[in-house]
């Protein structure tokens, strides 16, 4: 191989003096890995011979270096320190050991960086679906995001949710599945549940469809609750309270279907369903009719379509601006 002698000698001198840069050390490491054994021995021998007075290095320090080398390569070194070729061998071992250590460290760091990269799935103005590497299926509501690391499933199954998502978790007895929201962690083995965790809302909610779920707070006061099917756990961001109640899951999962069906539903529940499905905020000037019941079915209807039907039934007017709806009862 054609490598200039002066280049190798200069790199070895800088390495020996402890003034070598990272780029120069990378070049030296690459050179050491490419050289044949005889070539490497020749260059290191020359480098060693360039130091006429080895007495500059105290015997005690030499002994410590060799002891460190013994521990590094984990084999006994029955070598006399005054032997010329022993000194060359020591230099060779030192460069190889350090070079390999740096090489393995660099490769480990690159692997760590690769596996720690995040995969982010975002939904826009309409819901989206994703299947995770373990087979878990997730449906994201509008303006929601799901984040997980590239090595998801290798050691654990952990995702972060912002917004709303419906999870159909692939069962794995060896690895629990955890949804993180910043306020509560939801842990399961395999089950179906809905999580409502929009950042601009005052509460978070987990509604269980089937299986079992454990919910625990990640901020004081620390609490843990377990839910069974047709139960939901709600977390209040202001008070830190964690509550459990029964539910039909009709409101909580209405957004994943293209059909909304209300059967003798209180009007306040109808408006709440619209908030959840279309990610809007509804304010009402008069709550007198809140407990009035409504029956109706809407298939693939927009929020405007539904409001116009309710408007004819109840005689109210409304203003829809962005994600806010104000209803004025006459």
Structural notes for this entry:
This protein is of the alpha+beta class and 330 residues long. It contains seven helices and 18 strands. The protein has helices spanning 5-17, 22-34, 37-49, 59-73, 84-115, 267-278, 303-314, and strands at 118-122, 128-131, 137-140, 145-149, 157-168, 177-180, 184-188, 192-197, 203-210, 213-217, 224-227, 231-236, 242-246, 259-266, 281-284, 293-299, 317-321, 324-328. A hairpin with a 2-residue loop joins strand 17 and strand 18. The chain starts with a helix and ends with a strand.
Q: How many DSSP-defined strands?
A: 18
Mean pLDDT: 80
Task: Report the biggest beta sheet as strand number plus sense, adding barrel if it closes.
Answer: 13 strands, mixed
By DSSP (H or I, 4+ residues per run), the number of helices equals 7
């Amino acid at each position: 191989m054609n490598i200039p002698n002066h280049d190798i000698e200069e790199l070895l001198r800088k390495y020996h003096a402890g003034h070598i840069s990272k780029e120069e050390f990378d070049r030296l490491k690459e050179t050491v890995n490419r050289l044949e054994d005889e070539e490497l021995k020749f260059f290191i021998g020359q480098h060693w011979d360039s130091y006429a007075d080895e007495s500059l290095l105290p015997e005690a320090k030499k002994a410590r270096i060799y002891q460190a080398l013994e521990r590094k390569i984990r084999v006994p070194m029955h070598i006399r320190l005054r032997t010329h070729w022993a000194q060359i061998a020591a230099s060779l071992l030192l460069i190889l050991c350090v070079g390999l250590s740096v090489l393995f460290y660099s490769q480990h760091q690159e692997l760590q960086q690769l596996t720690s990269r995040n995969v982010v799935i975002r939904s826009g103005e309409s819901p989206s679906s994703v299947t995770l590497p373990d087979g878990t299926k997730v449906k994201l509501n509008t303006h929601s995001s799901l984040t997980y690391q590239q090595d998801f499933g290798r050691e654990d199954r952990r995702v972060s949710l912002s917004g709303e998502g419906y999870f159909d978790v692939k069962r794995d007895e060896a690895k629990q599945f955890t949804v993180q929201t910043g306020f509560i962690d939801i842990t399961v083995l395999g089950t179906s549940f809905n999580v409502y965790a929009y950042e601009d809302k005052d509460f978070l909610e987990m509604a269980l469809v089937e299986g079992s779920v454990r919910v625990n707070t990640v901020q004081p006061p620390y609490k843990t609750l377990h839910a069974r099917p047709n139960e939901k756990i709600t977390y209040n961001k202001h008070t830190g309270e964690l509550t459990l109640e029964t539910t039909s899951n009709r409101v909580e999962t209405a957004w994943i279907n293209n059909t909304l069906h209300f059967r003798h539903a209180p009007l306040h529940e109808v408006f709440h369903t619209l908030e959840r499905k279309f990610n809007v905020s509804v304010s009402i000037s008069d709550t007198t009719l809140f407990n009035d019941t409504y029956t109706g079915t809407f298939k693939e209807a927009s929020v405007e379509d539904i409001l116009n039907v309710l408007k004819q039934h109840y005689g109210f007017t409304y203003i829809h601006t962005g994600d806010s709806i104000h209803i004025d009862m006459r």
